[in-house]
C-alpha cells in the first residue's frame, strides 16, 4: 500500500541539506518524486538515521507485549490472508453462539453488551483508524515524518463523510420500506410498535399480558404444541414478516462493509487490522443476537433464523474479497513498485482508490457507534434509581470497551 503522506518535514529536509549537500535535488525533481522516493531520500539523511537508530534500539530493548504475540499467532500471513482469517473470526463464532440463545430472548437485555461494543468501535475509530488515515502508522525501527499535502486531508475527510452517509441512506431506505420501523443494529425491541408489536408477542408465544386474547384462548383450547406452532405462523403480521426479510438484506449489506473494513485495515498495517477485528467482533455478538431475536419474532423457526444469519455472513466474505481486489488492483498495494508522482493520484493528490477504503470504514464505524446505537443507550424508564444504576453500568461498559482498544494501541 502506498504510504499515506509520509516522510517530509521542511525542518528535516533543511537539516539534511546542511548535513549532506549532495542530497539536494532540484524543485522539478522533487515534484516528480513519489512518496516512496521521498522516503528513500530522507532515510539517507544522517540526522534521520541517528533518530532511527535510537528508536530501533529502544524498541529492541522493550519486551513484546502479550497482544503482539497473540496477534502474530492469529494473523500470520499476508494482508490478504489475514483479512480472510479475520472475516472468519468475526463471522463464525457469533453465528455459532446463536445455538445457545433461547428463542424468547429480549434484545433490550443486551444493552450492556451493546455499550461495550460501542466503546470498542469508537475506541478503534478514534485511537487507530483516524490517526492512521491522516498521519500513517508508526514504525518501531525508524523515524517517520508527515508530508502535509494540499487537499489530501480534504479527500480523506470526504471519504469518511461518504462512509457515514452511506449508512444514513441505508437506514433511511429501510425505514421507508418498513413504514418507519428502521433497522436497529442491536436492539429490535422497539422496531415494531402498536398492533405489529402485539402480534409479534403473540406469534412468539410470549405471555406479556398485552397479547391478543383470542390467540391465547385458542392456544389453550388446542392444548397441543403443533397446533400452537401452526397458530403462531398464522398470526404473524405481514408487515412484521416483511421487516424480518428486509432486516436480512440490511444485515447482508452491513456485513459487506465489515468485510471492507477487514481488508482496508490489514493493508494499512497488521496492528490496525488486528484492532479492527477485535472491535468488529465485539460488535457482531449483540448484533447477531438482536437480529436473531427479530427473525424469530418475524415468524422464523430457530433453525431457519440461524441459517439466515449464516447466509448474511457471506456478505462479509464478499466485502473482504472486494476490498482485497481494490487494494491489489486499485493502486493501494504498490510497496514502492511503479510508484507514481505525488500529484498523479485521485484529484491531484497521492491517494489511490485503495486508500479510500480505510476512511470509508471509519465513517461507517462512526455511524454504527453513534447514530445507530447511542439513541438506544439514551432511552430511560420511569424508575429514576434503576435508570441511574443502568446508566452507570452502561458507561462502565463503554469505558471498558474503549479501554481495551487504548491498551492495545498503547502497547503496540
UniProtKB/TrEMBL annotation:
The chain crosses the membrane at residues 70-90, 110-130, 150-170, 304-326, 356-379, 391-410. It comes from Metarhizium robertsii (strain ARSEF 23 / ATCC MYA-3075). One of its GO terms (molecular function) is zinc ion transmembrane transporter activity. This is Zinc transporter. Residues 224-236 have a biased composition (Basic and acidic residues). It is a multi-pass membrane protein. Residues 196-209 have a biased composition (Low complexity). It holds the Pfam family Zip. Keywords: Membrane, Signal, Transmembrane, Transmembrane helix. Residues 1-19 form the signal peptide. Its main location: membrane. GO terms for cellular component: membrane. PROSITE patterns: PROKAR_LIPOPROTEIN.
